[in-house]
Amino acid sequence: MTNLIETLKANTLVIIFIIMFLEALNLTGIPAIVIMPAVGVFIKSSGHSFLIVFAIATLGSILGSITYYLVSSKFGDIIYNFFYNKFPSTQKSLRKAKETAEKYGAKMCLIGRMLPTIRTFISLMSGIFKVKFKDYIIYSSIGIFVWNLVLMSFGYFGYILSTMTF
User: Fold this and answer.
1) Number of domains in the chain
2) How does pLDDT run across 49-83, given as a tens digit for each residue?
């Protein structure tokens, strides 16, 4: 058990990168709104650099989002048709998502990245509806940057406040 703990401590930054990469692919089962404040608390309590951990977590999120976009752009028609035909209750939502993508393009990523339920599907929908890749990366990266910064800051400064005596 001690070896496991030491291994985890030694590889913390890699683990954070992997968790955020997988979170962007919706594979962790735990959303960033839970993960990032915990990372903020970890940073303050462990002495790691906020900027370094923030950069690593954000890079993991961005690369995971790009991967999800590329997969969904490659298999978008199959994914869309599967859900549209197999689950008729999703048809209205899928049509609305398509209209939004056509109207706003990659700009929807900026705001969508900061809306808890919607952010889960931004990369998927952007890929399916062929949002311009360059624009997707720009707007998505800005949204991820802001989202991660806010959530990590909650954990980081929340930890500081919790240790203060008044």
Assistant:
1) 1
2) 999 999 999 999 999 999 999 999 999 889 888 98
